[in-house]
Amino acid sequence: MRTDTRPGNGPSRTRWHVPGLLGAALAASVAVALAVPSWTPTTPPQVTTAAAATAAAGTGAAPATTTSAPAPAPATATAGAADPAGPSRVVPVATGSSLPAVTAPDGTPVTRPATGALFDGPAEAPGDHFCSASVVESATGDLVVTAAHCVSDGDGTPARTGMSFAPGYDGTAPFGYWTVTAAAVPPGWLESGDPDSDVAFLTVSQPDAPPIQQLTGAYRLAFGTSSAGGDDTPVTAVGYNDGDADATTVSGTAGTLDEDQWQLDQPGLDQGSSGGPWLTGPDDSEILAVTGGYQQGGDSPDVSYGADLGPAAQSAYRSAGGTD
User: Fold this and answer.
1) Is 205 helix (H, G, I), strand (E, B) or coil?
2) What is the average pLDDT score of the chain?
3) If we measure between CA atoms, which residue out of 300, 279, 297, 296 comes closest to residue 288?
4) By C-alpha distance, which of 317, 316, 290, 258 is closest to 29?
5) Is the pLDDT of residue 62 over 90?
6) In this predicted structure, what is the pLDDT of residue 274?
7) Residue 96: what pLDDT?
8) How far apart are CA 42 and CA 33, in angstroms?
């Protein structure tokens, strides 16, 4: 279990539950439960690309309904954006939605600007970090992925919002703190804590700032990469252990726990690393899973787990405004 606090839910308390739920069925519905205090769309957008539609047609699956969704405004290589941490400083705008080289306002290169820490308080008083998250590509440019158990108890109660996210966190917040305004959680987790649905997509914003993706870049999501038969998949897992100023990074090969769960036998990730990305692909540019799932990510720092980014996660992503 890799999360120790529950924002807005009273005093911090250890969360050790859910391991017995591995037998629960993965949510089959493409509907996604959204827990948002002031934003609840009646018809979630269904966004897909031509490539995804073609792939679906080739397998006989029905492609998702395509609707128009605004893409984030392209940034230029020479443009700058006001640093949210202070009006007198400027940070370079990312040149695309992948993973550009990004420099903090003080001129220091940021190793992984799209990965950061989730804090239990609002942006103006963030408090301590309790989970990890990453910016992911989306049409709106304002989505981050984390573990569902970081924002939802999995007992039918609504997911929480109002906490804050600090991308590129290194003891300071080089891009400031971003408020979580919405949470898209698969119903399998929201209603019954199904570990196979332990993924959530959060919408973040900051006053007078462009979409976060334009500042930090964003990871692609490796949807449909099943852990079944996926032994020996190289990954780099990143997470913010409780109390640490810097992220912990471990590398190894992800193996199969079962057909819906990945397992990584590398020590180092502990409490607070929940929701952190398991990176793969060229230059670690894709997210294979996030720390979570079985035992909410693991009950020992020696072994970590992560749920597949399967249909439930993909539906949550689309409903939050993502495009795949």
Assistant:
1) strand
2) 74
3) 279
4) 316
5) no
6) 95
7) 33
8) 11
> How far is the C-alpha of 13 from the C-alpha of 7, rounded, in Å?
11
Say if residues 174 and 110 touch (Cβ distance below 8 Å).
yes
The Cα–Cα gap between 101 and 112 comes to 9
Q: Of the ranges 158-162, 295-299, 318-322, which one carries the lowest mean pLDDT score?
A: 295-299
Return d(Cα 43, Cα 46) in angstroms, integer. Answer: 9
Cα 209 to Cα 198: distance, rounded to the nearest angstrom? 30
Nearest Cα neighbor of 281 from 135, 111, 147, 99 is: 99
Count the alpha carbons within 13 Å of 261 in the hemisphere toward its beta carbon.
26
Residues in the chain: 324
Residue 239 contacts residue 221 (beta carbons within 8 Å):
no
Q: Is 113 helix (H, G, I), strand (E, B) or coil?
A: coil
Tens of pLDDT, residues 285-308: 999 999 998 887 678 888 999 998
Residue 278 and residue 2: Cα distance in Å, rounded? 14
DSSP letter, residue 226: -
Nearest to 197 by CA among 314, 26, 1: 26
- Which residues, other chains included, contact 137 with Cβ-Cβ below 8 Å and sequence gap of 6+? 97, 98, 213, 218, 219, 220, 221, 322, 323
Q: Parallel, antiparallel, or unpaired: how do β-strands 129-136 and 143-146 relate? A: antiparallel
Token pair 């391991």 is found at: 19
In the predicted model, what is the mean pLDDT of residues 267-282? 93
- φ and ψ at residue 102, rounded to 5 degrees: -125, 140
The pLDDT of 27-50, averaged and rounded, is 32
**Cβ atoms of 250 and 284 closer than 8 Å:** no
Structure tokens, 168 = 């590129």
Higher pLDDT among residues 65 and 239, named by residue: 239
